Amino acid sequence: MTAGLSEGAARPGILIVDDHLLIVDVIGNLLSASALFDVGTAASIDTAVAAISAHGPYDLVLLDYRLPGVVSLEGFDTVLRANAPGRVALLSGRIEKSVVLEAMRAGACGFIPKRLPAKGLISALSLMLAGTRFLPADFQDVEPQRPIDVGKVGADLTQSERFVLGHLLSGRTNKEIANAMQRAEVTVKMHVRQICQKLKADNRTHAAMIARNEGLM
To answer: Whole-prediction pTM value?
Structure first.
């Protein structure tokens, strides 16, 4: 597996930081086999910072929240500063929602649970690399939201509808959004219909245009 991307390289660079070698190998091999990413690995905060320093910021760092000797989000803060302007997401098998919320407020681009299936993982990484925040469906309520003007177009959108709308703005398909939400594709279609009705949009493209013009996301 290769280290970080140099400027102008074709594939985004991803650094996996986890002290469990099995997890590193499984995720690293999966991503490398996809041929979509250049993958690097590190087993501690120190080695992660060293890798970033040697090869430049990665497009995305997947950081295990529970590394030995790391207190709370200290490691996240360290890696986030070191990897700027690249993005950092938390990676964990078990984590409190309050920790995810704190990390998102501090600049995390998402949270990847280790239970996420392979297709869902690649879809989530693609979304984050495209500039969208990712949270699994059972963590969507921790996403920091902008204050909503009750008189504004789209103010009555639900949390799930806002999640879907954000992906529509990124040009994602229903299948990709379903993978990100860990929901059936028919559920996404239902959300898209509701979004179009509430925004008085003719179709998903029109809805995305309205959302962009109205500053909804």
So the answer is: 0.66
Reported residue count of the chain is: 217
CB count in 10 Å sphere of residue 137: 13
Cβ pair 37, 24 in contact under 8 A: no
Going residue by residue through the chain (217 aa), what tens digit of pLDDT does each one get? 434 433 444 689 999 999 998 888 999 998 988 888 999 999 999 999 999 999 899 999 999 988 877 777 888 999 999 999 999 999 988 888 888 888 888 889 999 998 888 888 888 898 888 787 888 877 766 665 554 444 556 667 877 788 888 888 878 888 888 887 777 888 889 989 999 998 888 898 888 888 887 777 6
Residue showing tokens 């909804």: 216
CB contact set of 53 (below 8 Å; sequence gap of 6+): 82
Q: Specify the residue for token string 């009555």.
A: 156
Strand, coil or helix: 39: strand
Read off the amino acid at residue 97.
Answer: K
Q: Are 78 and 45 in contact (CB under 8 A)?
A: yes
Class of residue 115 by CB neighbours under 10 A (exposed 0-12, middle 13-18, buried 19+): exposed
Cβ–Cβ under 8 Å, residues 70 and 55 = no
**Contact in structure between 5 and 11 (CB atoms under 8 Å):** yes
Full set of structural domains in the chain with CATH: 13-138 (3.40.50.2300), 159-214 (1.10.10.10)
Residue pointed to by tokens 């925004």: 199
**Residue 114 one-letter amino acid:** K
